[in-house]
Each structure stands twice: as structure tokens, then as C-alpha cells.
Amino acid sequence: MKRRKFLQKSMGAAAILGVPSCLQAKSSIVEKAQISGKKVIFIRMQGANDFLNTLIPFADTQYKKIRPKLHIKNDKVLKINEKLGFHPSLKNIYSLFKEKKVGLIQGIAMSGKPVLSHFKAMDIVESLNRDLDTTADGWLAKVYALNNKNKEKNIKAIMQGFQDLGPFEGNSHGVMLAGNHFTSLNVNNKKMQMMTNNHENNNEALNHILSVQETINEGKKKLMGIKVDMNLSDKSLKWFEKRIIRQSKFTVEFLAKNKQVPWAFISMNGFDTHKNQLATHQKLLHQFDLLVFNLLKSLRQKKLSQDTIIVTYSEFGRRAAENASLGTDHGTAGLSFVVGDKVKGGLFGKYPSLTDLAGQNLKSHIYFEDMYKTLTLDWMGFKKFPFKGSNIPFI
Questions:
Q1: What does the alpha-carbon distance between residue 336 and residue 348 come to, in Å, rounded to a whole number?
Q2: pTM (2 decimals)?
Q3: In which region does residue 320 sit, left (phi positive, over 0), alpha (psi from -120 to 50) or beta (all else)?
């Protein structure tokens, strides 16, 4: 049995080993990937964040025509120039943008023909590969393979809120999948011993499980060493605000304690706003704004802000016009944020036209390959990138 097929068929291996679903890990032989000492924290805005109501073209009369009930009123927009402004929930990001700490990649999308199925689109965005039946290896797994970074065992990333390995899918480069709730681990060594006694030593599947177990134990030690002050005395904070602050502190504390880990991922769900979008999107963007602000705050406190940037992505965007349910349907072009003390703030790419559409969708002229290539080569310091792409000068 090939390792990859075994992985695909036995994602429950960690449960067999007695590891709760709050943390799973997969192992591989990987060279120390901290090439430049740099780190990236990705925020996945799952469900497809609405571009037009996040970075709002308030001066464009077409905006109100196509969104008569869903547009954000001019007096509420946090204006960054004479044409564009942020959603009013993004107050912290607005302040950071004025400090030139935020880059906005306008109209970003997958290259080629659009795919508007959530699962397939996310697979494409995280793998940069359309032939998913042949291989679903993530784009970061391919980066490591191309650069021959495969000499040492090590944890390469921590992923919170993910059910799979996303950009690391396929080659299993030592990734920890952690739930959003931080609980201790309980590795049942008795079960492991029983399995060992009942199988032949040359069983390839068992040998792989043993390798997985080794990395799980390594991950257990790393997580158990993280101490975060969970007591938030500010009574004005809502429960979800406290959760976001704790999550940001945990993420940065983990990176500070494990300096060899260059990647962190956080998944935010709920952006599939087909109906009643105004209220839902407002809450989601408030949570997103709070997460970004507290991540950067914690990075500064831990003296990591000069070496870490925060980057966002969604599987696709949303249609230009509102629908009959006061929401928006699946579309194409979206918006990615790049945030950090070393980011060259500003606008990147061209804001899509609201009149020159591809059917009902915004046209895109900038792609995920471009953003990933810039991160891989210009920020992280890898020598090679396995896909075509252009530089985006946010570094």
C-alpha cells in the first residue's frame, strides 16, 4: 500500500492511536524549513468573503445600482481614498492601513476557468492544481519537494480549525492539526503497544502509523509547553471576542516557543452569505478585524512582528449584484489582506469593474499563484517555486 493512499483511506489513524480529534499530526522527513527565519500566519476565510462589501467602491454609482439594499452607506464607510473604503467593522485594520501596515490584493482569484463549488474551489486554491483526480498535493508540499527540503523530521506548521492539511496535503510535511479549543492530549501507549504486538514488523501501514505516533508525541510535548493567560478580566468583551483573543495569543505563543515552525493557519468559517448578508457579514468582519489586530499585537509583544506577516485567502469571491434573499451568491474575484510591520502597505492589482463583468462575475487580473510566489521566494527565502506567477510588491 502506498503511503499516500494509506493516508487518504485512514485519516482516522490518530483516533486509533488514542489521540483526540483536537490534535492530529502527520510525519515526514523534512529539512529545517526556517530558511530565512520568517513566518507566515494564514487566515482562511472559508465560505467566500464578499469583496465589494469589504473594500467598498463607495464612489461608483454602479455599486448602489447592483446592490440597492445590500450596499454600505457612504457615511459608514471608512474611506482610504476618494473611491474606496473599508467596511465599518474593520476599524483596527483601517488604522493599520493608514500606518502602511496593510496590503490589499484586489480582485484575486484562481487562474483559468472559475470553479464555484466550495470544496473543489478550496482544493484548487490550496493546491494550484485542477486535475484533482490525479493529485491533490498542496502548493506548500510541492514547494518543499521542489526545494529538496527533506532531511530532518520537524513540525512545519500548526493548523487550527482545519479538517485536512490544505496547502500541505499530500506529502505530509510534519503538520499539526489543532482544534479551536485547546485541550490537553492523551496518547494511549497501551493501545499502541497492543497494535505492535499483533502485527508483523514489516507491515508498511503499521510502520507508517508508528511514524505518525512519533510526530504526535513530538506535537504533544510542544503543545503542552504552551502557557497562555486565559483570564480576560474585561467584562465588556463578548464570549466570541475572548475566544478570538485567546486563539491569537495561543498561535503566537506557539510560534514563539517553536521558532523552527514557519507556518500557522487559522480557519474562519461562515462567509457563505447567500441570505441576510448585512448582519452576518458585519459580525464576521468584526471577528476578523479583532483576530488580525490581536495577532499583530501579540507578535509585537513577543518581538516576532519583524519576521511574521499575516495573509488571508478565500476559495472564491461573490457575485457583483445582490440576490433576492438579501445576500450574494458564489462569484469569482475576491480580496486578500497582507498585514505586518514589514509589509509595504497599499493597493495591489486593479479593482474590478462593476460594469465590465464576466457574466454576473467580477473579472480578475491577479491570481493566487502570484501571491504564493511572492511569499515563497521574496519573504520565506526559498529558491524555487513550482508554478508560474508574477511578483506582487507587498514585501
A1: 10
A2: 0.83
A3: alpha
pLDDT tens digits, one per residue of 324-362: 999 999 999 999 999 999 999 999 999 999 999 999 999
Cα–Cα–Cα angle for 31, 376, 314, rounded to 5 degrees: 115
DSSP string, 137-188: --HHHHHHHHTT--SSB---EEEES-SS-GGGTTT--SEEEE-SS-------
Q: Output the CATH code of domain 31-135+238-379.
A: 3.40.720
Any idea where the domains of the chain sit in the sequence?
A: 31-135+238-379
Dump pLDDT digits (tens) for 286-323.
999 999 999 999 999 999 999 999 999 999 999 999 99
Return the DSSP state at 258.
-
Q: Which residues contact residue 172 at a Cβ distance below 8 angstroms, ignoring those fewer than 6 apart?
A: 3, 7, 26, 27, 28, 141, 165
Backbone angles phi and psi of 55, in degrees to 5:
-115, 100
To 10 degrees, what angle do helices 239-257 and 277-301 make? Answer: 40
pLDDT one-digit tens code per residue, 222-264: 555 566 565 556 667 787 788 888 889 999 999 998 888 999 9
Which grid cell sits at 90?
Answer: 474593520
Do the beta carbons of residue 333 and residue 361 sit within 8 Å?
yes
Q: Angle between the 189-197 and 204-224 helix axes, to the nearest 10 degrees?
A: 170
CA angle centred on 386, ends 384 and 390, rounded to 5°:
80
Element (H, E) at 301: helix 277-301
Whether residue 107 contacts residue 362, with contact meaning beta carbons closer than 8 Å, is answered with: yes
